[in-house]
Amino acid sequence: MSILVARNKQGIVTKKGDGGYTYVYSGDKLSKDDLKLEAVGTMDELSSFLGMAKSLVKDKRGKNILEKIQKDLFNLESQISGMDSRKLKSKISSRNIRYLEDRIKKLEKKFPFKDFVLSGGNLVSSVLYITCSIARRLERRIVALRNKEKLKAKNILIYLNRLSDLIFLLACKYGSEPL
After folding, report:
1. Three-class DSSP category at 101
2. What is the pLDDT of residue 85?
3. Which residues contact 10 (CB under 8 A, 6 or more apart)?
4. Alpha helices in 15-83 (DSSP H)
């Protein structure tokens, strides 16, 4: 998924990152341990696990939800990596948050829970529990980035908080339904 590094006509090996630095859309040269890159790398990981879950889920509705989230992460990654706001297709907005909240409300009606849930019921739910953990880590990375760089992250943090809730509920759903 990585859209952090602008691709040019040369091959994938540029040798520009060999010294521990990389360039982002803004043109800034960042150390590979920069908080922005940590956040973007965590988004890549999250999207990869969402893709794995999407490949395992049988129903079209579930696949569509997971794919929509992956597309939102593309936009979020562009936002975080410093793409000029005029070039962004869209930013994470209240509309993205409402989408997640609507799905959460529907799933909460089906899966009211009062206790902790153990993962491992089946492969789909297990992958989704891992994905939920990655979403929570991403939220922590964004908080650290916001605190260090004054990132305007209100909608981003709300979105990520709802995202981990939705993924948790999807894990519950797929852990309790026959596949």
Report:
1. helix
2. 53
3. none
4. 35-56, 60-80
How many Å apart are CA 96 and CA 163, to the nearest integer?
Answer: 10
Q: Where are the domains of the chain?
A: 33-176
Q: Which residues pair with 23 in a beta bridge?
A: 29
Q: Which residues contact 5 (CB under 8 A, 6 or more apart)?
A: 22, 23, 24
The helix (H) or strand (E) run that includes residue 174 is helix 154-176
Measured CA to CA, the distance from residue 144 to residue 169 in angstroms comes to 26
The Cα 145–Cα 151 span in angstroms is 7
Question: Quick one: which H or E segment has residue 10?
Answer: none
> What is d(CA 69, CA 50) in angstroms, rounded to the nearest whole number?
8
pTM confidence score: 0.84
| 30 SS3 class | strand
| Range with the largest mean pLDDT of 24-33, 41-50, 74-83, 148-157 | 41-50
**Which of 157, 52, 165 minimizes the C-alpha distance to 107?**
165
Residue 89 vs residues 103, 108, 136: alpha-carbon distances, Å: 23, 31, 25
Instruction: State whether residue 137 is helix, strand or coil.
Output: helix
33-176 belongs to which CATH class? mainly alpha
| C-alpha distance from residue 179 to each of 89, 105, 109 (Å) | 36, 22, 20
Q: Between the CA atoms of 89, 95, 101 and 104, what dihedral angle is there, to the nearest 10 degrees?
A: -40
